[in-house]
Design goal:
A hairpin with a 2-residue loop joins strand 1 (about 15-20) and strand 2 (about 25-30). The chain is mainly alpha-helical and about 150 residues long. The chain is built from seven helices and two strands. The chain has a domain at about 5-105. It has a two-stranded antiparallel sheet with strand order 1-2. It starts with 5 loop residues before the first helix and ends in a 19-residue tail after the last helix.
Length: about 150
């Protein structure tokens, strides 16, 4: 039987990404099974905006926060496992940093779960719009720019 090394354990049991914001330290880890359904509900507008980020560019975090403030806050409350009051008390810069780190820590979940779900939703909406307008739309088939998955 082979011996597990520290690197092997880090893959099996991801180490938290620790971040101190607004006077509080949070330990970000990948989402848990019990968080998938509530997170999937509130992340949709956020994920749609991330999906439309041009290749090679970082998401426009400020636009995302300003256009989808409630969805961003609700998503971060679940993903960072912190109180809504604490998230609402963060500065915009802190909120953007927290959002970016949550996306980084949960990239595999976003690519494997949310992305396919969004593609299905977008396909249905696009087909419906095509029937109404008579114009066929081109669907995105690749993940958002900068997205990577370590489970390839």
């Amino acid at each position: 039987m082979t011996e597990l090394h520290t690197d092997d354990l880090a893959i099996l049991i991801p180490q938290p990404l620790t971040l101190t914001l607004g006077g509080q330290t949070v330990a970000l880890t990948p989402i848990r099974v019990s968080e998938i359904q509530p997170l999937s509900r509130c992340i949709q507008p956020v994920a749609q905006m991330l999906m439309h980020t041009p290749a090679g560019q970082s998401p426009d975090w400020l636009a995302l926060v300003s256009e989808h403030t409630d969805a961003v806050i609700d998503t971060l409350v679940i993903a960072a496992r912190c109180s809504k009051e604490w998230v609402q008390g963060l500065t915009v810069g802190e909120l953007v940093l927290l959002a970016a780190k949550v996306v980084e820590v949960n990239a595999d979940f976003l690519l494997q779960t949310v992305w396919p779900q969004l593609q299905g939703t977008i396909a249905v909406l696009t087909q419906g719009m095509g029937k109404v307008t008579g114009v066929a739309a081109v669907l995105p088939t690749t993940p958002p720019a900068g997205a990577t998955s370590s489970s390839a």
